[in-house]
Structures are given as C-alpha cells and as structure tokens.
Design a protein that fits this description.
By secondary structure, the protein is of the alpha/beta class. The protein is 34% helix and 15% strand. It has a six-stranded parallel sheet, sandwiched between helices. A three-stranded antiparallel sheet has the order 5-4-6. The longest helix has 16 residues. It is elongated. It starts with a helix and ends with a helix. Bound molecules: 2'-O-acetyl adenosine-5-diphosphoribose and zinc ion. The site of zinc ion has 8 residues, from loops.
Length: 292
C-alpha cells in the first residue's frame, strides 16, 4: 500500500504526464467539515449522532417527507443550523476552483446542500447539486413555490446565531394556497434526484469514452458513499479511467471492488488539497483564494 504523500504525488504526476486530462470530482460532507458544518455519519461529530436532542424515531427521519409532514420541527431546526450564508469554503473547495481556473475541471458532482462550491465562485455549469439545495422552496402538498425571503423570515434564519442554534423560537412556513408545509428543494429520502444529475452523468460517461486518450481522472473526496444513487457513480466510472479517493476512511467501491490503478489518499481533505496544490505549482494561488 502507498503512503499518503506518494499517493498525492501520483495524482499530480498523472495530471502532469497527461496535460489534456481533466478531473471529475465527486464529493460529500467531508469537504465542508473544516468550515464548521458537521458531516452526517462520523462517529460522535456527525449530525446523525447528534440528532438525539430532536427526539427523532430514527436519525434519517429528519430527511423523510412523511415524517416532515407530521413533525417539521426537527428538519426546520436543522435547516436553521445549516442554512447557507454563515460558512466560508474550505481549502478543498478552492482547490476545485483552481482546477477550473487552470482549465482542468470537467465536473463536480456534490451531495452537499451548503452551496459552498458556489461561494468558492466555481461556475454553475460545472456543478451538479445531486441532493438539491436551499435555493428554492415548495409546498409539499401542491408544489407551489414559496418565496425564499419569506421562508427565511418565517424561520428567523437571519436571526440565527450559533448560541441559539437548536432554539425553537420560529414559525413554520406554510403554503398561502393550501396550508401545506414548505420544504426547501433538498432531496429527501424517497425523492428523486434532479434530472440534471442523470443527464449530465450520461454525457460525462460518453465523454470519457470519446476522449480515452486524454486520460481523464476521477477524484472522490469526503463521502462515505452510502447514499444511492450517488454512491454508484464510482463503480460506473469506465474501467480504463483512473480513480482517486481522498478520505479519512476507505469507502464504497474502493473497498468492495478496488481497481489496480486506484489511488488512495488516507487523511484530511484540506491537507491533501494543500499538498496537491504544491505539487501542481498552485500553492500561492490556493493561499490567495483561501485568504479571500
Ligand atoms: P457522510 O457523513 O456519510 O460521510 C462523510 C465522509 O467524509 C466520511 O467517510 C468521513 O470519514 C469523511 N470525512 C469527514 N471529514 C473529513 C475530512 N476533513 N477529511 C477527509 N475525510 C473526511 O456524508 P456524505 O457521504 O456526504 O443527504 O453523506 C451522503 C448523504 O447522506 C448526504 O448528502 C445527506 C445524508 O443523508 C442529504 O442531505 C439529502
Ligand atoms: Zn400548497
């Protein structure tokens, strides 16, 4: 097994040896933990571990439409806590931005709803928000759209401070037409992913095959690869396309069906971002972006 720094060098060498190679990123909550946003499944620090205070029958009920319909309190509480605006992108987000700046970015498939890719100024055409985002709200009964500003004021989002996260002093957002509860366009369990996710992945798979000789690369980071269909992306990467994983733990297809050419970087995503940027000659740029 390769050590961490030689694995990072391997990624850098791949990109240097194949100057036309571009990268598709597939990312999850682990790229935002350094921003102060907890991930879901890490023991002790993960959200699902810390949802006990919300009195849920099971942790994932917080993203369950039927449960939300009966009791919106837990999701609304979580939404106030996670609402975008209070967080800054991580070094890893800025590394992805540098891939765009250097014309080495093909796509970012993200499971995150924190919109930090957007806040890192990565162009929207590259970013697939597989699990939706807070950018729109709809009634769960009649689907009528509900204005963003009104949602924020009902839930007293702008009045949320870290000290009062977990506070229950807010109103529910209800549809003006039918009184149904209003839910941000985040993909809950049992709901379909946006069609753009499937359409773009189909295009990108064809792109791999069309441009075989360019040796494109897939970089997966900060995800437990447990939620489908997103978790099946890595196994759908054509066998001749090289995959790399940057994560605290070995996950998903890298564990179940490892490929000989896989590159595994065990450890922290920001630390890896820093080292990879150094290898690629992008360190000053990374530090400038991160200094904001
Ligand atoms: P998870 O919490 O399931 O997994 C996060 C992964 O990142 C774990 O493998 C951690 O070990 C790793 N990790 C955390 N911090 C890291 C760091 N600083 N450096 C390296 N690795 C780190 O999060 P996701 O895989 O994103 O759904 O979860 C997938 C979906 O499950 C989410 O999108 C969410 C949830 O239900 C919705 O929000 C709809
Ligand atoms: Zn309605």
């Amino acid at each position: 097994r390769m050590g961490k720094s030689s694995a990072i060098k391997k990624v850098a060498e791949h990109l240097k040896n194949h100057p036309e190679a571009k990268v598709i990123f597939m990312v999850g909550a682990g790229i935002s933990t350094s921003c102060g946003i907890p991930d879901f499944r890490s023991p002790k620090t993960g959200l699902y571990h810390n949802l006990a205070k919300l009195n849920l029958p099971f942790a994932e009920a917080v993203f369950d439409v039927d449960y939300f319909d009966k009791n919106p309190q837990p999701f609304y509480t979580l939404a106030r806590e996670l609402y975008p605006g209070n967080f800054k992108p991580s070094k890893f987000h800025y590394l992805m931005k540098l891939f765009e700046n250097n014309k080495r970015l093909q796509r970012i498939y993200t499971q995150n709803i924190d919109t930090l890719e957007h806040q890192a100024l990565i162009s929207g055409s590259y970013v697939i928000e597989a699990h939706g985002s807070f950018s729109k709200n709809h009634c769960i009964k009649c689907s009528k759209e509900y204005p963003l500003e009104k949602f924020k004021s009902k839930l007293k989002i702008d009045e949320t401070h870290s000290e009062d996260s977990g506070s229950t002093d807010f109103d529910y957002a209800r549809c003006d037409d039918c009184g149904g509860l209003v839910k941000p366009a985040i993909v809950f369990f049992g709901e379909g992913l946006p069609s753009r996710f499937f359409d773009t992945w189909e295009e990108d798979q064809e792109w791999f095959l069309k441009e075989k000789e360019k040796n494109h690369l897939v970089l997966i980071a900060g995800t437990s690869l447990t939620v489908y269909p997103f978790a099946s992306l890595p196994e759908e990467v054509p066998p001749e396309v090289r995959r790399a994983l940057i994560n605290q733990e070995l996950v998903g297809d890298f564990k179940a069906f490892p490929r000989e050419e896989d590159i595994i970087i065990h450890g922290d995503v920001d630390d890896a971002a820093q080292k990879l940027a150094a290898e690629l000659g992008w360190l000053t740029d990374l530090e400038l972006l991160a200094a904001g």
